């Protein structure tokens, strides 16, 4: 019933989990709205761990998220919006703060803070896998339920956190610094995902716009 209603109203429902997702998507929206003024876009924020499940259940037409959430799910097709690397985020009290870049050896000498796996799902375990591919067992001293709490522990407890290279620190640039990591497996993609059997015409108009813009 909900899918038929979306078809009738030319509605495209989009789910996302983080600000970086929206950053990657927004640049495509003005031209899409100009070319398809009758299609209504509906945006909803969900936990990263729920992204793929909600897409598979047909609750949303499109998901924008890290590629880790779509891996191994054959019914979901994807297009890459942004490819990048994770940087080490450190406070100005941290011994690495003045470094222009760091090696894997330097990174893993220090304890880490990560977002809770109950919040980010498979991305948590992929981060651990990347660390193991770097040749190290990460020392995760704390987990946080949101980015704000993660930044709090980076500043107050001198922990290292991983952040996407396109994340905007805004007012915390004097307190926290992002440092590139040499030869690390900590990379990511931000992708749009959709079910291969989704027949919503608004979806295909949206995908056509994205593909022509990338």
Can you characterise this structure?
The protein is an alpha/beta fold. The chain has two domains: about 1-80 and about 190-214, 3-Layer(aba) Sandwich (D-Maltodextrin-Binding Protein, domain 2), CATH 3.40.190.10; about 85-185, D-Maltodextrin-Binding Protein, domain 2 (3-Layer(aba) Sandwich), CATH 3.40.190. It contains nine helices and nine strands. It has helices at about 1-10, 20-25, 30-35, 50-55, 105, 115-120, 120-135, 145-155, 200-214; strands spanning about 10-15, 40-45, 60-65, 75-90, 110-115, 140-145, 160-165, 175-180, 185-195. Strands 1, 2, 3, 4, 5, 6, 7, 8 and 9 form a nine-stranded mixed sheet that branches. The longest helix is centred in the middle third of the chain and has 13 residues, at about 120-135.
Supply database-style keywords:
2 domains, 9-stranded mixed beta sheet, 9 strands, single chain, D-Maltodextrin-Binding Protein, domain 2, alpha/beta, 214 residues
Quick summary:
The protein is α/β, with parallel strands linked by helices and 214 residues long. It has helices at residues 2-9, 19-26, 29-35, 51-56, 104-107, 117-120, 122-134, 147-156, 201-213; strands at residues 11-16, 40-45, 62-66, 76-91, 112-115, 140-144, 160-164, 176-179, 187-195.
């Amino acid at each position: 019933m909900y899918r038929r209603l979306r078809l009738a109203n030319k509605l495209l429902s989009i789910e996302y989990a983080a600000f970086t997702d929206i950053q990657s998507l927004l640049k495509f929206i003005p031209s899409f709205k100009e070319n398809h003024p009758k299609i209504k876009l509906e945006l909803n924020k969900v936990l990263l761990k729920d992204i793929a499940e909600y897409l598979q259940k047909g609750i949303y037409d499109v998901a924008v998220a890290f590629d880790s959430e779509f891996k191994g799910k054959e019914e979901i097709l994807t297009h890459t919006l942004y490819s990048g690397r994770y940087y080490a985020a450190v406070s100005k009290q941290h011994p690495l703060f003045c470094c222009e870049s760091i090696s894997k050896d330097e990174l893993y000498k220090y304890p880490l803070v990560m977002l809770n796996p109950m919040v980010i799902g498979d991305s948590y375990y992929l981060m651990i896998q990347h660390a193991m591919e770097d040749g190290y067992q990460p020392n995760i001293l704390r987990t946080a339920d949101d980015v704000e709490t993660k930044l709090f522990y980076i500043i107050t407890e001198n922990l290292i956190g991983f952040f996407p290279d396109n994340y905007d620190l805004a007012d915390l640039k004097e307190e926290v610094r992002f440092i590139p990591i040499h030869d690390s497996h900590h990379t990511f993609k931000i992708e749009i995902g959709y079910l291969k059997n989704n027949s919503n015409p608004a979806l295909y108009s949206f995908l056509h716009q994205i593909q022509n813009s990338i």
